[in-house]
Amino acid sequence: MEELSAIILAAGAGTRMKSEKPKVLHEVCGKTLVEWVCDAAYGAGVKNCITVVGHKAQMVMDYLGSRVQFALQEQQLGTGHAVMQAKHLLQDKKGHVIVLGGDAPLVKAETIKKALESHIADNNAATVLTAELSDSTGYGRIVRGKAGRIVQIVEQKDATIEQLDIKEVNSGIYCFNISHLLEALSKLSNQNAQGEYYLTDTLEILIKGNHNVGAMKIENAYEILGVNDRKQLWQVQQILNQNIIEKHMYNGVTVIDPNNTYIDGNVEIMSDTVIHPGCMIQKATKIGANCIIGPNSQIEGCTIEDYVEIKNSVMVDSYVSAHTKVGPFAYLRPGSHIGENVKIGDFVEVKNAKIGNNTKISHLSYVGDAQVGENVNMGCGSIVVNYDGKKKQKTIIGDNAFVGCNVNLVSPVIVHENAFIAAGSTITQEVPKDSLAIARERQTIKKDWVRKRSGQDDTV
After folding, report:
1. Is the pLDDT of residue 300 over 60?
2. Which of 192, 358, 370, 459 could form a disulfide with 395 if both were Cys (CB 3.0 to 4.6 A apart)?
3. What's the rounded Cα separation, in Å, for the pair 60 and 416?
4. What secondary structure letter does DSSP report for 103?
5. pLDDT band at 459 (very low <50, low <70, confident <90, very high)
6. Active site residue: 119, 276, 363, 416, which one?
7. CA distances (Å), 276 to each of 80, 239, 311, 312, 418, in order?
8. Rounded CA separation 282/316 (Å)
9. Domains along the chain?
10. Residue 102: which of 125, 139, 71, 133 has the closest Cα?
11. pLDDT the model gives residue 460
């Protein structure tokens, strides 16, 4: 295939979004609208991606960075005008370019690739992608001639009664031979009621120049849907989420309730894993095989190995090894690395800590900035006191140590292997290997103290 370029139109203000952010930077299923379009273009084999920016251009440029080239449209004077701003980036290139909307994230890489292949095979100067809609209101209509070739694109406001009945509409996606596009742009005019330069007019210019202009109908009409307001953002998110979940299902993942499960587009899940209702799985999370996730768990940027069970928990930027159980109601904060066959139980919080294999932290504990060895038992209510008011300090607990209930480990402190810490202790000093540490006041009993305090004792 010849060299392929893409122009992504992302300059619009998107006023109907009523947002401080540019429209194309709003997110659906873990990626911004414009990222979905960029990824689809690159996935189709595009090598050179140009993004036309305008409204809050610097924000878009900062977000996309070096992955694309940029062209600036200072005034938004139509789609044709937007493409004209990218002319200097195409002048020295040969091959073909596809024009895409930066607010239409549903277009698939397979569709773009098929369109470019069809465009090249038919030796077209331009190819417009179309879709058949039951309700074509608001879209430009595709008018075909007797031979079935495209004659013109008529906007709804300019259409005749007969043309309004046409169900085939303009998707806003176009393939061009680069040299023919540059030729047509040089002849583009803004002599219309809006005083704008329309990209659709380039097709008419090419047709009048006896160049081939073709059309390819998109099989899945939803791919042309763009986002102009929050409702459409939600509609697009629903379709993307459904597509993502279906992909995982076809790969052997069980999703109990797809209508109540949310999975980002860059999440990986292996076969025979079960996702229960209410789960949100986000930001390039990787989940192994034969896991049970949920219900009502939020997992963000984590790696989870095989045979892990998560219940009603929140996990962020953490690593969980095989055969481990987390939850219910646990919280793994960034930097947590949980070993194999570990129990992280109810109302346990772990932050920036490494937990060794076969260790149990069963309930009501906090372990932060710590290194916990293998076969350790952390009793109910045990706390790593990691913050001294100025900075975080580290606690180290050796293999086979036993930390009793309601123990405070005041960092920095080391508990060596096989040590035993009595319940209720506050540990501030190093605990040697094989030792018992007791750090609590001896119990004192004062008989009849309550009655005396309340004045009920006549002998007082």
Report:
1. yes
2. 370
3. 52
4. T
5. low
6. 363
7. 48, 20, 9, 10, 39
8. 9
9. 4-224 (3.90.550.10), 254-437 (2.160.10.10)
10. 71
11. 47
